[in-house]
Amino acid sequence: MRILVFGINYAPELTGIGKYTGEMCEWLASHGHEVNMITAMPYYPEWSVHSSHKGKWWHTEKINGVKVHRCPLYVPKEVSSMKRIIHEFTFLLSSLVYWFKFLFGQKQDVVMCIVPAFHLGFMSLLYSKIRGVKMIYHVQDLQVDAARQLDLIKNKTFLNLLFKMEYFILKHSNYVSTISKGMLNKILQKGIPEAKTFMLYNWVDTQHIRPLSKEQSLRSRLGLAETDKVVIYSGNLGEKQGLEIIVEAAAALPDVNFLIFGSGGGKEKLQDLVYHSGVSNVSFHPFLPYSELPNLLATGDIHLVLQKSSAADLVMPSKLTSILAAGGCPLVTALPGTSLYDIIHENDMGLLIAPDSAALLTDCIAEAFTSELQVIRANARAYARQSLDKDFILARFDKFLSTGKKDAQTEAVAV
User: So where does this one cross the membrane (predicted)?
Assistant: First the structure.
């Protein structure tokens, strides 16, 4: 098949949506499909165009069998709601250069839009209608709902307009896919028929991401002993995570090393909070290459998967799949009844506390270091191998692309 994918994030971004989109496109290309990707210059999560692409304009790269069409865009140094809206619209405008080529070029068999940004769906929808091809609207984040819940957009008139725009795209797409049962339920509540939805869960390469010993970890490089207590947060440092409680927990647990790997719009604010709090057991580190991710995951005794209660079931933390595959012990903030809570609880593969509470986080970490966690780690690894394997999920997506029929086994997976 000829598959056209449209999204603002793509490899070589190491985390989040760009990572999954890159892996999906490369997997499809390796299985005989012709894949074109219209995307931006890589910038996430640092919110700065990567040095490899700075100063470049529109150009096409061939990456592992995928034709990647890059577009320039505005990337704000400090992220706010309005600046993010401008950022996303500059990409949409910039992408028109390639959309004109595809509108009048060789017909694609399917067009897939990766959300966010939600309004990218308009161009994908236009192509779908003009060329008469199927469109898949793949929802990684319920962006407008999150903006409302997190109070990022205060103008109700503007917010209602965004919801109407989103509904128009959802209604007119041939298929709507998403990554968790909770997000699917919210999409159904918007009035979208279940018959046009399907699940495309985020996956993990369970052969690459696997349990390693502490000797194979990064402890020696980081100046840590095998007996040191280590808690790791790795990923985007943004508004949805509520990372401020890490600092309070660190102040209450001076014998625990808190390692924060990553970048994002909230990093500077978090660093200032650490500095003014006077804690000495919180350290910041840059993202590591994907090849070293198993070693990083082996470094931590506990891995934090944090998000605010207001973001419940609107986003699904992508870091969780790697933690599970590495046989790690995730400490997850989630409310009962959400997809995240249910999957961890039902499979006994992590520690659960309510969001937004430094006291609960502190108590849970302290108790974890006096508990036996081997059963949790074994359950995590087993679940990843059985239900989240990259080939398992993408092979069924490939079958859906060819037949338009859902796979009952894939639909039943819950993460």
Answer: none
